[in-house]
Amino acid sequence: MDIFPEDTVSSATSSPASSLYSPSPHGYGSWVQELSHDQQGVRLIGLLYQCAAEVAAGAFDRANLCLEQINQLASLDAPHTLQRLAAVFADALSRKLISLLPGVSRALQYSTAASCSGEAHLVHAARRHLFDTVPFMKLAYLTTNHAILEAMEGERFVHVVDLSGPSSNAVQWIALFHAFRARRGGPPHLRVTAVHDGGKECLASMAAVLAKEAEAFDIPFQFDAVEARLDDLVLLLDTPDALRQVLRVRSGEALAISVVSQLHRLLAADDVAGAGRTRQQHVPGSSCLTPVQIMARSSPRSFGELLERELNTRLQLSPDAASSVVSSLSPQSPAAQQQRTPAAAGAAKLGRFLQAVRGLSPKIVVVSEPEANHNAAAFMERFEEALNYYGSLFDCLERASAAAHHHRQHAAEERARVERLVLGEEVRGVVAREGAERKERHERLAQWGRRMEAAGMERVGMSYGGMMEARKLLHSMGWAGSYEVVHDPRGEAFFFCWHRRPLYSVSAWRPAACRHSGGRLGSS
């Protein structure tokens, strides 16, 4: 495990499980008062590892004892980041433990979904603060645009498909307008298709902003919106040519695909309930139903019906069911062995999607992903990787908050919101969830390379010019020093690092068959 700085990062979450470790009304125990700050930090890390091991073994009593001790050392509003980090991981471990109880797991998911839906506007604000505070998304957008610009040299009709969903931002495409307008020969006719499940208002707002900017830059522009999750597009793969129709891929246009921090979600096991959430909006309007709209109308289920079913079945289980669920978490148990099967199903789903993308004949596909291994089969391996990875991210936030000398109180409040609503939710996704609900399945670039090549894709080198542009951004924003952009040894990808630790990667790909063809689209 990495050595955490004294003020190493931490994240707050809001959850029903938080009552298991919220600060005691009686304050610190005497044993806590006898420990120095450094000793408390060492003790916290040890308790987290011990608690994770007890949770993995299904040892309720021992895990709960660990949580009670963590409670005396950590809280979500503590002054030190390691204390807050411990609090959010305790929340995730609490949820993991609770999920073993028959009938409770699904109810907890609904409670969390209801809580998150009520704070949707706060989540948006938190994501915006994260974007403004740390440079990773800005670097991803800049280097993606640079790769697209180079791939589209000489093209007069360009279609960019944005598969980034919640990570998409109109700022990226406004910057691409700038780049295209400055290129020799002038800008192309540009079409952007955004796949996003943020609702019609979100997509309409993006359309309006981009249309206004395109007009100001005198760039011929069209915006199409597909109101769906990336997961939902996978449901189209059994229908011939449906993906091409939904994304409106046309002959005569050079196609680029951008996906920021979303592909890992396709590694989750197939979730057929996703079909009921898929809708489509065309800006401007569409006159006929698409395959996505048809699927959306075919699902009769509601959250209320699902919850009622769960309450009428799983909560009626016999007392012996609890012990059987606990024992199923043992690494040698049949249930633990079966947990590998959904992961394989998820990998197959991703492979089918990447092959379908390859079939669209894009000139370039640019992939940005967290540089972490949060998809390991072993729970303890995921836990340790997550503790180190999010420790670094929360450290980034803490340093940025501390640097806001004139608005320190406001910066601390914004930082707490990001920790609670964005990063805290990701930690829960890695640590507390399993099966189709575990969407945060981040993998390292080396593994992504194997997956892309297995789907018939080949690497496109990321240019030195793109790296220099990224470094220039870091210097202009005052981020140089702690942050850096590193070319991989073969010059085929970028890593965005915090104190030399890679936290994100960006790589570019194209269909292997296009290496001599110029990447032009065939007939649709």
From TrEMBL:
Pfam families: GRAS
Keywords recorded for this protein, A-Z: Transcription, Transcription regulation
Motif (LXXLL motif): 263-267
Annotated segments matching region Disordered: 1-23
Organism domain of life: Eukaryota
InterPro entries: TF_GRAS
Region of interest (SAW), ranges: 432-510
This protein's record includes keyword Transcription: yes
Family: Belongs to the GRAS family.
Protein name: Scarecrow-like protein 3
Organism: Urochloa decumbens
Upper classification of the organism: Eukaryota, Viridiplantae, Streptophyta, Embryophyta, Tracheophyta
